[in-house]
Structures are given as structure tokens and as C-alpha cells.
């Protein structure tokens, strides 16, 4: 069995750049604890009855999870995959399906179906295009004064930093709230917004024009696939910025006026 597994692993590495033959799915984002499935269709082109399912993690090679007979649904899974007991497979119309009853963090990977076809004097293992399963990680959001002093021209700025999220795409928005009043969208005429995006983090800088007397609490909202996250800071009396200590990462009312 070990020799057979080694042969299939070798074929997988050799043929990873060959024709993508099967119809598979778009990337999936599945919460931990829920079920997931990956379909593989058009398996009638296979040269025999066996369809293999492989797992490919970012820094690892292809690993066989199991083999399923596409005609009767019989499964063979003695390939020493460390997560083999988490997976099952079934035959479906014109294809097969790999199933996960309960998604775990360690299941984050790309999944490929494959089978052997006969060529000129050879047998080739062809692959589907693969389906990526990834875990959504919520953004960690912090709001800080962007500078330790108010700008001379009467402007101050806030920095909203979103980090540690996956996928990395986020959308920023700002709101403000005066004491004893409802939360409202910021007026674009009262400030300017700049955005900076780097690997692993994104930031929005809200440049606030000089305010009227009063205390404003500004909230940064970060929309992400993992959910919307809010962080707050506070604008001090008479338009002055409240300065927070460096360990006050998200929100609060304590501070000292400049």
C-alpha cells in the first residue's frame, strides 16, 4: 500500500500542470464546525472507475485523502492521511463528492479530484481545477490619533487600522456621535479620507477639519467577510484631540487633552 501511495503522490506532483479536466467549485469560506462538500463532475472521461481526492496545503505537497469508485461509491482510504477520518465521499450524477461533516481549522487547503486516463503508450493522472477551503478570520480593529498634536491649520486626524484578517479585503466607513445624540454618518465636507493597503493590514486615515465646540466620539467601521467590526475614539472639547495611551487599542473615554 505504501508503494502505491508513493506512486500516486509522484504522479500528482508530476501532473499538477497538466490539463484541468474536471468541473469543480469556486473557493469556499466555511465557518468552523459546519459541514462542507466539494463536487467533481465529468468523471465519465476517466479511464477506469477510480477517482482520487487530494489535499494540497500552501507549504506542502499533494496528499491522497481517499479513493472512491465512481460506479458503486465504494471508498478506500488507507493512505495514512492524518485527517482521513474527517472525510467521506459519495457518488453523484456524473461525478463524485468529497464531504466534511465538521470543518476544522486544519482543513484549510485546496482540494483536487483526479483520475487516470490512457494516452499514447502511457497512463496520465489528470486533475480538476481544485477548490480552496479557507477559514475567515475577523479583523482586529484599532483607532488612534494619527499624530500627537493638532495640525497648525486647525485639522486633526484619526487612524483606523485593520489587521490579522483573512481574506484581506475590507471596507472602511466612519461615523460620529455628539454627547447625548444619535450616531450619524460623517459629512464628507467635514473631512478627507485616505486609505493605505499593505499585506496583512489596511488603514483608513480620517482628516478632520476643525470642529465646533463639543465632544465627538468617532467610530470606525470595518466591513469584512467575517463580520463588521467597530472601534471608537473620542474628540475632545473645543475641537482638540483626546490622546490615548498606546495600550488603549480600541475605545474608551479616558484621556488627556492637548
From TrEMBL:
Q: What does the UniProt entry say about where the protein is found?
A: Membrane
For the keyword Transmembrane helix, the answer is: yes
**Which spans are transmembrane here?**
109-128
Q: Which GO terms describe its cellular component?
A: membrane
Q: What is its main location?
A: membrane
Q: Respond yes or no to whether keyword Transmembrane helix is given for this record.
A: yes
Q: Where is the Ig-like domain?
A: 33-113, 139-234
The UniProt keyword set, sorted, is: Immunoglobulin domain, Membrane, Receptor, Transmembrane, Transmembrane helix
Q: Which PANTHER family match?
A: T CELL RECEPTOR GAMMA CONSTANT 1-RELATED (PTHR19256:SF65), T-CELL RECEPTOR GAMMA CHAIN (PTHR19256)
The identity of this protein, by name, is Ig-like domain-containing protein
Q: Which organism is it from?
A: Amphiprion percula (Orange clownfish)
